[in-house]
Specification:
The structure is a homodimer. Chain A has ten helices and ten strands. By secondary structure, the first copy, chain A, is of the alpha+beta class. Chain A has a single domain (8-373), classed as Coproporphyrinogen III oxidase, aerobic (oxygen-dependent coproporphyrinogen oxidase, 3-Layer(aba) Sandwich). In chain A, α3 (183-197) runs antiparallel to α6 (285-296). Chains A and B meet through β2, α7, α8, α9 and β10 of A and β2, α7, α8, α9 and β10 of B. β10 of chain A pairs antiparallel with β10 of chain B.
């Protein structure tokens, strides 16, 4: 109706709501006989709201037939999955501002804003744990962060009057965690993400692919969490520590569809371009992942494979609880919704002392470990 | 043979080796038909050695009958258990010395020892996860830490020439984590520990009981890990932040068996007394815990109870990976033996989104939660 451009925070919120719907529907469509995702809307007392969409099979507590390592009963495609969005706002204390200034030089000195600054954050976060050990776990997360001037007038964080934005950035990524290495799946996942990055700069995929391998790494195990994907943070129109600086653009920046023999585009520069990039990789999640689940869920599997899957899920728990910044930050945040933060954990995980699985390189388990210990270029 | 008194590091090592043997044997005696604990000796490349004694049932990967929530098959009393000792030495860098000076004022200023200082640490650590949901999990840990002058002569850390000790202290404790609250078990556990503390000072049990409730607390869940026990650290002949200072002793310190109408003994003061206290609580582990397992392992249980037990084990994993100082320190230590550090994790753990179990105070699960949210005085 109105021709005035909407503020980015509103556009991001609209986008992640739509993306959540699409992803949940496409996951439900894989398995029409399974229960639907459970949709919970919640309010954060300190400001904001969200919607969690979670899949779980009802627990069978009345018979003796459910199983851990072995059973094929109750064969839903998914074992546990969550697709969450949250749109929150509040006040960022000066120490947090100090930390953020390293990557966001447009922020004021923390000592000049002793009362902190208002922030706004909107994001989508998802983790899918399929039941079949041949079907990989997937994770994705895309988020927008904004810091504004203190608004001495009426509403703070509402969509009425819009305070001046001091800094904004996007972050996110997607990664794949198989229990068994099926190379064509890793290639498909990476290729789909690379293609989604390509129109926005040639440096995005290689930079964010490397960052992903570095981020999802368990030092105490000497292995990555999975076969990687994309990971990035602090993406704005400012210089970025891992990307070529905007000043290095040689021509024709900001117009991704003019084509022609101009110099290679290295990265998105404007907010508009970056948001388009986010939508492109966000929209790539379903085509990057759902076909893999559809294909692998029909494969038969053994109790041995199930056991290995649960051990790998133990490593997933280790990464998320010991290293993941989002989880750690979330658990420390007063008023955070713990159920949403920890929905990333698998339904079941297993720890065996001195487990021999994965040690022999000539086994299927050992082939996965080879890749986790030495990340590979898939494309 | 020799009448020269042995150095404390040797006496502690001898004690924890004996204690490990006794605990493992008494656990094996509960269940004569189960496999024995697996004993692994290991060497730390950076200096030191240890022995892990671990119980696990062989994984059944060939049939379809093993189960997660429900099965009563393969009914060993224990599901997973580890009793480890380690005796390690190395060099403590100046930042670590700086941190330790807060509680150990006898240490030199870190700037005066730019090359760090030699340390020695010997400890026993155990976690027992029984299979029956009515039998609680138990954890105990007793350790001795010593910092010495840099030895410019021959051997470092060996038992030959003994360098001058700059600081030493003991730490440890024991705590009980039931899935179902059986009050007489909590009372028995606490009473056995209190009795073991009593000869060494009236302030030990109340101080260390409170410390235990504070330490084994999951802020993001607003609950303790279990029903507590003892927890302490930095116990030496110096002033202690939680105990009455040695100067407040009114008479007759250092002789615990003189008795008489002297003023009440508040805490152990000499190294000899503290080591006796450590042995007293260490020796109390078997009588505090084994009778409980023997009694509860004969109770029948339902799949519903097994499901709740696995959810509680998920909380155990959360505590150990997110908060436990020993685990975090261990995982960050180069050359640490990850298998020994993470043997504390249960064989299986479970995470359900928005699990309703425990919310209704009138259920057995809710009764446990009431105690975890409001720690109780058991004696």
């Amino acid at each position: 109706m109105s021709s005035a451009p909407q503020p980015m925070r509103q556009r991001v919120e609209d986008y992640i709501r739509k993306l959540q719907d699409e992803i949940v529907l496409s996951l439900e469509n894989i398995d029409p006989n399974a229960p639907k995702f459970k949709r919970d809307s919640w309010l954060r007392p300190q400001g904001g709201s969200g919607q969690s969409c979670v899949f779980a099979m009802p627990s069978t507590t009345t018979d003796d037939s459910d199983s851990n390592i072995a059973s094929h009963r109750h064969e839903s495609v998914l074992e546990k999955a969550g697709v969450n969005i949250s749109i929150v706002h509040g006040t960022l204390p000066p120490p947090a501002i100090k930390q953020m200034r390293a990557d966001h030089s447009s922020l004021p000195l923390p000592e000049d804003v002793p009362g902190g600054l208002p922030f706004f954050a909107a994001g989508i976060s998802l983790v899918i744990h399929p039941r079949n050990p041949n079907a990989p776990t997937a994770h994705a997360n895309y988020r927008y962060f904004e810091i504004t001037e203190t608004n001495n007038s009426s509403s703070s964080g509402g969509s009425g009057s819009t305070p001046k934005v001091l800094a904004w950035w996007f972050g996110g990524g997607a990664d794949l965690t198989p229990s068994y290495l099926i190379e064509e799946d890793a290639v498909h996942f990476h290729k789909t993400l690379k293609d989604a990055c390509a129109p926005f700069g040639s440096q995005l995929y290689p930079t964010f692919k490397k960052w992903c391998d570095e981020y999802f790494y368990l030092p105490h195990r000497g292995e990555t969490r999975g076969v990687g994907g994309l990971f990035f943070d602090d993406l704005s129109e400012l210089a970025h520590v891992r990307l070529p600086s905007p000043a290095s653009y040689t021509s024709d920046i900001g117009s991704i569809d003019k084509g022609g023999p101009a110099a290679e585009k290295l990265r998105p520069e404007t907010q508009e371009e970056i948001f388009e990039f986010i939508q492109s990789v966000g929209n790539a999640f379903v085509p990057s992942y759902v076909p893999i689940v559809q294909k692998r869920t029909t494969m038969s599997y053994t109790p041995h494979q199930r056991r290995w899957q649960l051990i790998r899920r133990g490593r997933y728990v280790e990464f998320n609880l010991v290293y993941d910044r989002g989880t750690k930050f979330g658990l420390m945040t007063p008023g955070a919704r713990v159920e949403s933060i920890l929905m990333s954990l698998p339904e079941t995980a297993r720890w065996e002392y001195m487990c021999e699985l994965g040690e022999d390189q000539d086994t299927e388990e050992g082939r996965l470990m080879g890749v986790l210990k030495n990340p590979r270029d898939w494309l």
